[in-house]
Amino acid sequence: MISASWKSAGKTTVSLGLLRLLAEKGRPVVSFKKGPDYIDPMWHRVASGGECYNLDTWMMGEEACRDIFLRNCVRKAGSIALIEGNHGLHDGMDMAGADSSAGLAALLDAPVLLVIDSRRMNRGVAAQVLGLQAMPPKVRIAGVILNHVASSRQESKQRQAIETFCNVPVLGAIPSDTNLLLPERHLGLVTVGEATDAETFIRDAAEQVERNCDFAAIRALFDDAPPLPLPAAADLLPHQKESTARIGVFRDAAFCFYYPGNLDALRDAGAELVFIDTFKSGGLPEIDGLYLGGGFPESFFRELSANTGLLRDVRERIEAGMPTWAECGGLIYLCRSATWDGRQWPLAGVLPVDIAYQRKPVGCGYLELESRSASSWFSEGEMLRAHEFHYSKPDDGGVDLTCQFDVVRGFGLTGREDGLLYRNLFASYAHFHAAANPRWAGQFVELAEKFRYLKSSENG
C-alpha cells in the first residue's frame, strides 16, 4: 500500500509513477484504490494500462474487500498488487480505525510505503513516523519516501532521523517540483478525460520516481507481503453467464464515474455492455437497458443539450419501459433542465425536475439509505451504503415523484429522500458499488431480459 501522513502529501503522484514504471518493465500489476473515489482509478488505468478496483470497508464490508482484492489479483495471473490509500494512513470515521487505510492494510497484511510531505520539517519528521507506527490498527511501515524535499541538507537530516529512531529505511527523496502538481478541482483531481496533459504528468512522475527513489528496494516490498489464504477456485472466479441482454453505458468525458467492479458485475450477470459517447451518438443503439453514470455534465451542458436526437431517444425508450439506472450526473441528464453558471439548459425531460447548482457541496461523503417499499430494484426495508458528491439539487427543494429511499445519513436528493422511481427507471444521487448492493447486477440484467422479450413479442 502507498499511503501518507495526510491528504495531498504526494501518494497519488508516487503511485502513478510506480505503476508506469512497473508496466514499462513488463511486470503485470493490478491496482486498487482505498475508498469510494472514482477519479484516481481513471489515472491508475492510464498509468498501468489496466483497471483499478475500489476497496472500501465501510461501504462494502471487510469480507467483500478481501474477495475483490483476491479475485482481481488471481484474474491477472502472476501480477503484483499496488493499493493507493486515501487521506492519511489513520484517517477514517471509526475511532478504532477499521475503515482507515491502515485498517485495509491490516486486513490484507500489506506492507506500507509511506509518503511524507517533507516541507517545514527536519529531524522532527521521525516523530510523525513514530506516531503512525504506534497508532492502531498497527501496520508495518516498510519504507518511507520523502516528498517536496527542499535541499540535500534537509533530506540528510530527515533520512538519518527516520532510520535511527523509527528503524525504517528511506527509499526515496523527491525534490520540490512545481511541474509535478496534479490538476485539481472541488472533488480532487480532474478527470483524465479533461486533463490535456495526463500522459505527460504520468511520464514525468515515473521519471522522478526512477531518478530519486530506490526502485529495486521498492519492488522488493511487493514480495515481502505474506501470502493470503485463497478461497475455493469456484468462489474466486465465478462463471460468467452467456450474454442475454445488451445494456448501454454512457461513457465519455461527461459521464465517466463508473466503478470497474460494477461493469464486471453486469458482465458476470450476463450483460453485453454497449458503450455510448453522448457527444457523437445521435441516438441510442439497439439495447435492452441503459446505465447512466456520474461525472461532470455541467462542463458539457452546451453539447449535451444540443444533442436533441439522443435526448429524444432516451426519453422515448424510458417511456417505453426500458430499464434504466442513473446516478448523479445521469440523474441530472434525465431532468427537465439544469441551471449552471446563470444559464438554464434543457435536458431529457424524463423527470419533472429542474436542477440548480449551488456554490457549496450539497451532498458530500458517505450515504446510508433505507428502502421505503418494494420496487423493481429493491426490497422494502433494505439498508444500503453508498457515496455522494454533488453541488446540485432540485431547484424548489422537493420532488413530486415516488422515492425509493429515506436518507439515514447524508443528503441524497432533498436531505430526506433519494432514489426517484418512474416506470422502470431508478435515478439517484447515490453512487452504489455492486459489492455493497450484490443483487443489483442480476436484477438489472433480469429487467433488461424481460424488456427484450416484450419487444420481441410486440414485433411478432
Could you describe the 3D structure shown?
With 460 residues, the chain is of the alpha/beta class. The chain has two domains: 2-224, P-loop containing nucleotide triphosphate hydrolases (Rossmann fold, 3-Layer(aba) Sandwich); 244-458, Class I glutamine amidotransferase (GATase) domain (Rossmann fold, 3-Layer(aba) Sandwich). It is built from 15 helices and 22 strands. It has helices at 11-24, 40-48, 57-60, 62-75, 101-108, 125-134, 152-165, 198-212, 215-224, 233-236, 260-268, 301-306, 308-319, 329-334, 440-458; strands at residues 2-4, 29-34, 52-55, 80-84, 112-117, 141-149, 170-175, 184-185, 188-189, 245-250, 271-276, 289-292, 324-327, 335-340, 343-346, 351-357, 363-371, 383-390, 392-394, 402-409, 417-422, 425-428. The strands form five sheets. It has a nine-stranded mixed β-sheet with strand order 11-10-12-13-22-21-20-17-18. Strands 1-5-6-7 form a four-stranded parallel β-sheet, sandwiched between helices. Helix 1 (11-24) crosses helix 8 (198-212), helix 6 packs parallel to helix 7 and helix 11 packs across helix 15.
